[in-house]
Recover the amino acids of this structure.
């Protein structure tokens, strides 16, 4: 049986929270894009999505901490 360091547990819990937050943001962004019939709005959403992709990758790789 292996002993799990509480620090590791806390890091994993924080990563899960970060992933949940990013999933919520991604879902909201996609929902807004789908509901928008306006090309101008879609262009703004795509600009936001580009930044969001970088943040999401950082969360997935465990580099973003709250």
């Amino acid at each position: 049986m292996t002993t799990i360091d509480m620090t590791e547990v806390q890091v994993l819990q924080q990563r899960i929270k970060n992933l949940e937050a990013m999933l919520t943001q991604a879902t909201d962004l996609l929902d807004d894009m789908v509901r928008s019939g306006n090309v101008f709005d879609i262009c703004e959403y795509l600009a936001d999505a580009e930044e969001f992709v970088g943040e999401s990758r950082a969360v997935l790789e465990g580099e973003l901490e709250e």
Residues 12 and 28 are 24 Å apart (CA to CA). The mean pLDDT is 82. Helices lie at 6-35, 39-60.
